[in-house]
Specification:
49% helix, 14 helices, 8-stranded mixed sheet
Length: 317
Amino acid sequence: MEYLEFELPIKELEEQLQKCKVIGEESDVDVTETCEQIEQKLKKTTTDIYKNMTPWQRVQLSRHPDRPYTLDYIKAICGDSFLELHGDRSFKDDKAMIGGLGKIGDQSYMFIGQQKGFNTKTRQYRNFGMANPEGYRKALRLMKSAEKFGIPVVTLLDTPGAYPGLEAEERGQGEAIARNILEMTRLKVPVVTVVIGEGASGGALGIGVGDRVLMLENTWYSVISPESCSSILWRSWEYKETAAEALKLTATDMKKLKLIDAIIKEPVGGAHRDRDKTFKSISNAIEKHYGELKNLSPTDLVHQRMEKYSNMGVYKG
């Protein structure tokens, strides 16, 4: 288990507890009372730390190296029923954007999401979860296939942004994202979107136009990352914590601003602390929200989606 800087008091107490138990096992000394005291202190410290997290700490938690990624969720939720589909039928297969068919119970879904790597080799292979234009075109191709066969779409957002390289711009990165946003507003099947990690900029929005947009508790969704915002406004990354606060990027802020529909609770300490519980929460949320949408006609579905996004940002003085 890796610990972030603000989690170090928890690490120290857990190590103390482990040492205390080892002493009890290797000697005749009764350490029961001492262990109980450390456990109580650990419980209180854990509660205090995770109850009072700053926006920047939530950003850090969303990037935790042990946190589950898109394929972890899909494989846990769908099991052997998941069939990955490849390629945009135009340029190549983008490994940062994955998609395919899978089942939850008896219901088929088209799953689409950004995939990060878990070590140096896989991070390079997945381009750090930053999709190229062909990734967004692949996503759109899969959405259109789902629409053709009446299959609901589930998108999982976890990206630091679309790939900003020269070759991506040459192949039409902005156009690909804009095209996806346009086409997603008028898809004739239900779309459930879940932010499972980082939801940065147009890279996230390119697969993020859903009838229901949900966020895990320790994730963020914003037009720009705190570091980039800090470097633009203050010419330095030192003000990233201030930027995170000002951007209102946490799930709580997004819900308050009516930009998302629901927050999915995470286990104490983050999704990686109890993966099975997190997978179950996501699965239940997808089924719940699809159940609310499945009986709507395609016309009503598109109308409600258009209304939802048209009302965002409207201010009445």
